[in-house]
Structure formats: structure tokens, C-alpha cells
Amino acid sequence: MIKKQCCWLAPALALFVGLPLWGAEKINLTDINKIKAEGMQHSQVMELNSWLSDVYGPRLTGSPTVEQAAKWAMDKMKEWGLVNVKMEPWTNRNGFERGWTNDKFYVQAVSPQKFAIPGTPTAWTPGTKGLVSGEVVMVTANNEAELAKYKGKLRGKWIITAPAPDVAAFWTAPATRYTNEELAALEKATTPGRGRVLGGGPQAAPAPAGGPPTPAAPAGTPPQPRPPFGRRGGQQFANSRNDFFAAEGALGVISTISRGHGLYVIGGNRATDPEKSTPRITIAAEHYGRIARVIGKNQPVVIEADIKNTYYPNPPMFNIVAEIPGTDKADEIVMLGAHFDSWHAATGAADNGVGSCAMLEVMRILKATGVRLRRTVRIGLWTGEEQGIIGSREYVAAHYARRQPTPGVAADQGGAGAGRFGGPQGPLELKPEHAKFDVYLNLDNGSGALRGVYLQGNAAVAPIFREWMEPFRSMGMTTLTVLNTRGTDHQSFDAAGLPAFQFIQDKIEYEVVAHHTNMDTYERLQPNDCMKMATIVAGFAYLAANRDELLPRKPLPTAGQGGS
Q1: Mean pLDDT, to the nearest integer, of 453-474?
Q2: Which of 210, 267, 490, 525 allows an S-S link to 447, with CB 3.0 to 4.6 Å?
Q3: Which domains does the chain have, with CATH numbers?
């Protein structure tokens, strides 16, 4: 009984007096306490978030704004004393032949009643070339034969392609934190599984009404209904239908999602040919529904619009990197990262300005405290994540490993190209830097507090992370799960056989309100959570940088396998 009590008191006593914790890991609590004090008492994370979202948002990949934001971030890191600060170009443009911005958006119903229609044009679609006006028509064609019936009838018309959606009330609280029971369930998982997808959810993925494809939902989410064209022909018919609308001279296509409450989801296809496309506009269900219901009463709805979108040929494609040099193990790398790009209906604060700013704050904390770092700590801020985790994949392919083309498979099959994860899965070719890489830590799930780590199937790191979490238990870091999580940049490193992890985060409103929506603004952020986030990651980076050995790795993926 006495022995058990002493073992229980040891960690608490160590935290109080600043001694190393008992266990296999060497934890300098004096330095950890410096990190905690700097991160929680002198935080700059919310000021960084305001700059990146309010001043330099949104940050659509390939736009002038994302380049301006990158220069701001680099200036901050130079100000803090980081070295090797640069914009590192991608080696492959990955189809980004055009940058794009929306410079003007005016849409108004003028009859039978006048009302403003807030919305956002889909990325890479053209504008209206001045003020235009036309009647709204509903085109519910589900196949080529049905579509042909509209030939010669669409010139000068605005098009909607589905009836008014049903909008459910928020019967459950939109903002939630993990309960103890939910965290316990994560702990009890025994197999990694295919992976939980970040940024989905039952309320976050409603049925589109003629809109872009719905983001994938986490494992266990009930299947969501698909739009009519999805049931009968898939994306191929949707694309041919849009080509038909453009050829017929339609003014544009208006879409929504059934989430309602003023929210809508935005997206876009960088391969859109502005000469063969029409303006595409996304609006909230409330305005879409009003238009659709009035049309259903055989009352014409006329909309006028003036939308200006600008294209930028061959924009620079890049990632942002910077370092704090290590000492005796400076050639070994601890890497922190987050995606820097965003969609454009809002300022990209929660997805993923907050992750980028937290990682910037981590670097500031490590420099401000002056703690000794044996390994080099490097930050990577990625663009192109929203189009398929491209920036981090390009970085991994350039520095650590790439896939050789599968014999007999075209180099561009799979969308990402040969040698890049997500493309043909041939043999893995390791580069010299691969052996010197320690760990990659990623943030990309909103501004919720960190509650633990997805182990990504790497059970060998569990006892290490368990000890690393102990100084941060009072901040809510309690949970390790063997589960995988998918949908963000840690996958690029994991696919190369490198230790790479995403943190478990409280959901808050991320999936319901912020993810890819017109409400992804600074107001979605939780300041205390953001401070804790940066502080905990700074502690993990410090502990990784000063550990005697590199973190254990999973077996290398074999040919045909990608990351978990």
C-alpha cells in the first residue's frame, strides 16, 4: 500500500520541485516549465491568427494573397531569429496553371421581390463580364437524354439543379468537446483501421443541392444522401452537364447545401477552363430555398449579377520552411507542420490558419525561451492541401522518399503523378535525408484543445508519448489511440515510412460551422485552446529534439501501399 502511494506521488512531486519524471524518458521539467510559462503567459498566437486571417485571408493556393501571406510569415520568423527561411518551390505544378481571385460579388433578386443574395463564386470559375440579368430555371436532368430536352432553352438563364433542400434544426449543440467516455473509447481501440477522416461529420456533410461533392465523413458516420446526378451518373455526368450549360449560353449555375443557418460550403476545380465554363455560385440554403419555392409557384424569379474574377497565369507554387538549428544532433530533423492554404468563402481561420499560427507560435516559444535543442527543429507550412495534400507530398518526394512508377502504369495516373504519394504506387526510393528524420507533428482540425495523439498504428511510440503527455495532463492531454486519422498532411510523411502524427482535438464547432464554409473566420477560434495547443506542441517538439534516440518507426510501406 505504501509502495503504491509513493509511485503515485512521484510524478506529482517531480512536477512540483522541477525534477526529472521517473521513467524511460528524460524530461527536463525546468525547461518544460519555461515553455509552459512562455506559451500561456506571453502568448502571441491570437495576434498571429488575426494577421493571417483578417489581413492575409483567404489563402487560396496559387492566389496572390497566399504569396503575400507567405512573405508575412517569413518576415515574422526572421524577426524571431529563425534561419534558412524560404519559400521552397514545388518541383511539379500539379495542374495549377492559373491562380484565381474573386474581386467583386454582387447578386440580387430583382423580381418578383428584391432581395440581396450573399454568396461566393466557386474557385477558378469565370465572372459575368459585367452586369447581367436573367430568369432562374430549374434543370433536373439526370442523364444525357433528359439534358438534351433543354437544348436551345437556356441562353441568358440562371440555373438551379435541385429543389429547395430540407434544413434540419441544430437539435444537438453545434459546439462540443470530447467527453471522458469518448476519450476512453479512443483509448480502447485495438487496430488502426482505415482511418478517421478529419473535417467531416453528420451535420458537416449534408446533401448538396446541385453543389460540389460532399467531403468524406469520419468512420461510422451514416451515409449521406447524394444529389440526383450522383445517383445516376456520377461526376462524369456532372461535368458534361456543366459543359452543356456553358455551350448553351447560360448565365451561371447556383448551388447550395442543406445545412442552412446561413452556412454554405465552397470548393473549386483548378482545372476549370474559363473559356468553356459558366460562373458557378454557392449560396445559403435559405436564399436558394426561397428562389426554388417561388419558381415552383410558376412565379418568375429574375436575378442580376456583377461578378469579377481574375486569373493569374503560372502562379508560384511553394511551401514555406524555416529552422531553429540543433546542437550535437543538428543533422537530425524534428518537423512541425500545418497547411497554409484555405478556401475562399471566408478567411480560413480555423482551416487552417489556426494550425499554421500555432506552429509559428511553437517556433517563437522555442526561440524566446532559449531552451537547448539537440536536433534541428524545422517548420513546414504547406499549400495545395485542399486540392489533395499536394504541398507536403511534393516536399516529402523532394527530401525523403518517392515512389517509382509502377511498370505499365501511366505517369499521370492517380492525379498526383509518378513518384508522389497518391499516384502510382511502385517501389519506395529512399533519399539520404530519410535516415536522419525523427518525427513530423501536424495540426489541422480547428482550434479545439489538444486531448491526445492518434498513433497512426505506431504502437511503439505509445509509452514515449505517454510520458511526454504527463507534464501537460492538466491541460487536457490524456489520450493515446492506435487509430489512424486521414485527410491531412501527416499522411505524406506516413506514406514514406516516417513517424508522423496528428493530434486529437476537441471538435468545438469545426465540423458543423467552420470546415470549408463561409463562416470560417477569426470568431471560430478559442483563444485559451489556441494557447494550450501551441504550448503542448512546443513541449513535444522540445522533447523530440532532445531525446537520445530517434523515435521508433513502423515497417516501411511495401509497393502498392500508401500511408495509413
Answers
A1: 97
A2: 525
A3: 29-93+316-391+429-546 (3.40.630.10), 98-165+208-313 (3.50.30.30)
